[in-house]
Amino acid sequence: MGTVVAQTSMPTPDRLAQPTLSASPSQADKGAQVYWLACLPCHGDRGQGLTEEFKQTYPEEDRNCWNSGCHGARPYENGFTLPPSIPPVIGSGTLQKFPNATILRSYIFATMPWWRPASLTQEESWQVTAFLLRENKLWNAQEDLTTSNADLILVGAPVATATPQPSAAALTVSPLPIIIGFIILVLVLLLLRMLRKK
Q1: 82-117: per-residue pLDDT in tens?
Q2: Global pTM?
Q3: CB 20: neighbour CB atoms within 10 A?
């Protein structure tokens, strides 16, 4: 007699499900909720950007939103046109154009979400910034991200500052000091010659 082993399968997690909050959520935990609500539709459930794979998680009727009449060239009334490419925000090499957390937060606050720029509150923009930094392992999220510490958190490549180059005028030697110096030298030599003759 053989024994029958019951096979159990783990349910597939719903990638589009709202994240749950702990009893005492951190700023970054709250940012996960903001991300889910305002960022996930375009930037992906894992911050991967709008990949073809992620589009397949959309309900079937929403997978072709770039077509004209939906969110394409001629969107529906009160609609908006989606960009053809949406970058990842979590993962290696992401967020490189933002030198620090202050600039990242300012960008999010002023321009996101795409369909309603500047609709996040100040607090929500700090929360989603803290979430993105935590997910990219740039911030431990043990304390709140604020204006007092955000400048210190480096995100992308440092901003290149141009070393001031001397102007062409500064490199050109003026002939006036040379002429004056030559005249003084000639006068000194003449004076010495006259003194020797005496």
Answers
A1: 777 889 999 999 999 999 999 999 999 999 998 889
A2: 0.70
A3: 9
Give me 116's structure tokens: 């309603």
DSSP letter (8 states) at residue 100:
B
In three-state secondary structure terms, 156 is coil
Residues 6+ apart with CB under 8 A from 38: 112, 113, 119, 120, 124, 128
Q: Is the peptide bond before 113 cis (omega within 30 degrees of 0)?
A: yes
Fold classification of 27-50+85-152 (topology level)? Cytochrome Bc1 Complex; Chain D, domain 2 (1.10.760)
Residue 154, SS3 per DSSP? strand
Domain positions in the chain: 27-50+85-152
Q: How buried is 129 (Cβ within 10 angstroms: 0-12 exposed, 13-18 middle, 19+ buried)?
A: buried
Residue 19, Cβ neighbours under 10 Å: how many? 16
CB-count burial class (<10 Å; 0-12, 13-18, 19+) for 165: exposed
Cα angle, residue 127 at apex, residues 109 and 142 outer, rounded to 5°: 140
Segment 44-90, tens digit of pLDDT: 999 999 888 988 887 787 776 766 656 666 666 766 777 778 899 99
Q: Which residue has the tokens 């499900």?
A: 17
152 is written with which tokens? Answer: 């210190």
The residue assigned the tokens 């030559």 is 182
Positive or negative, the Cα torsion across 167, 172, 175, 181? positive
